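User: Second chain of the day. Same drill as before.
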Amino acid sequence: MAQVALIFSLVLAAGVGMFAVQNAGPVLVRFGFWSIELSLVVVILVALAAGAILASLIGLPGWLRDRRRLRVQARELAALRAGDPPPPPPVPTPDSRPSA
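Assistant: Same format as last time:
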């Protein structure tokens, strides 16, 4: 599955790159009282980079939560394999409470 996502990402990046290079004319970008004339290539690539950064930031909390769970489960597994009593259960997070 990871290979399919990588191939899709590469194809999408190549498509955006081709689109950006073929549309290289100058454009006037206005935001509030601010305006600047830039190449459309720059505008497209900055928008693409901003979207990628925003998507990464949105996915970061879930990734950190998964890493923390994996670490706890690895410790529990190591304790079970060693025959030690399991460590106390972790403090429940808002996601792990049963719904009413």
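The CA atoms of residues 32 and 38 lie 16 Å apart.

User: Great, on to the next one.
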